[in-house]
Amino acid sequence: MSAFPDRTTRAEIELGGTFQPKFGPDGLIPCITQDHATGEVLMFAFMNAESLTHTLRSGQATYWSRSRQKLWKKGEESGNVQLVRELRTDCDQDVVLIKVEQAGAANASCHNGYKSCFYRRLTALDDPAYALETNAKPLFDPKDVYKR
Amino acid sequence: MSAFPDRTTRAEIELGGTFQPKFGPDGLIPCITQDHATGEVLMFAFMNAESLTHTLRSGQATYWSRSRQKLWKKGEESGNVQLVRELRTDCDQDVVLIKVEQAGAANASCHNGYKSCFYRRLTALDDPAYALETNAKPLFDPKDVYKR
After folding, report:
1. ipTM of predicted complex
2. Rounded to two decimals, what is the model's pTM?
3. E runs forming strands in B17-69
4. Which partner for A45 in A63, A68, A97, B95 could form a disulfide, CB atoms 3.0-4.6 Å apart?
């Protein structure tokens, strides 16, 4: 059972003043994580009711790892925790957006060493080769991660 | 069949220079849409290969509507189109992020009249009542939408 308020009417969900998050059939809600100071999107992951509750109570971003099927306290292993400054939801309350202060040793959100997971962009929308480029610099050497 | 390059090795997908988007078992990839000038997250939706291709070729954000099960050319009915300035993907290339210029009559992304769908935030992370608040002002009267 979810610890969150039950979903009520469409009007209440879309324009009301109570958080009524919708978890999908798999028990998950998508979460967008944004740097609270710069607005940069850092990562995208999923939360279940337990990880959302943990995020709110601890003030630290906690996700649900679909690959490992376990609670994923961000930074628990790497030390790169995310301190939650604000939580938003969208019109139909089936997505959450958290604004965080990325903290820790490297201030990196991505396991590949970058501040943001979105470190690559298409060189051009109409590029038939679909080439990606990056102008981001890694903040730590990801080999250190793979070594552990 | 997807028009996009095949997924190759983990190293190529995560650190390489070719866009190899991963569509889920349902054929969809999550898309975060951000204002290219301010960084504000405007909305979250899904794309299938057809809508992603249409987005890249037309330069206008095109999603897949799960509720209507059809291609959703953003702004086709409301006039509030999104001109795509940049497309990014994340480390494992199973999410896309587009930076857009929200254009059109009201410059609103949300059907409820707001610039962003994320117009409400929790008043406090530890609020046991889970109260939401907003400081956003609608740019058009959503009743106009419901009337149509």
Report:
1. 0.94
2. 0.95
3. 29-35, 41-47, 62-65
4. A63
B40 at the A interface (CB within 8 A)?
Answer: yes
Residue B11 near chain A (CB below 8 Å): no
Element (H, E) at B58: helix B49-58
Per-residue buried b or exposed e for A57-83, using 16+ beta carbons within 10 Å of the residue's own CB:
eebbbbbbeeeeeeebbbbeebebbbe
Q: Nearest CB to B97: which of A118, A129, A130?
A: A118
At residue A145, the 3 state secondary structure works out as: helix
Alpha-carbon span A98 to A101, nearest angstrom: 10
CA pair distance A115, B90, nearest whole angstrom? 12
Q: What is the pLDDT of residues B120-143, one digit of tens each?
A: 999 999 999 999 999 999 998 877
Alpha helices (runs of H) in chain A, residue ranges in sequence order: 10-15, 49-58, 143-147
Range with the poorest average pLDDT among A62-66, A108-112, B81-85 = A108-112
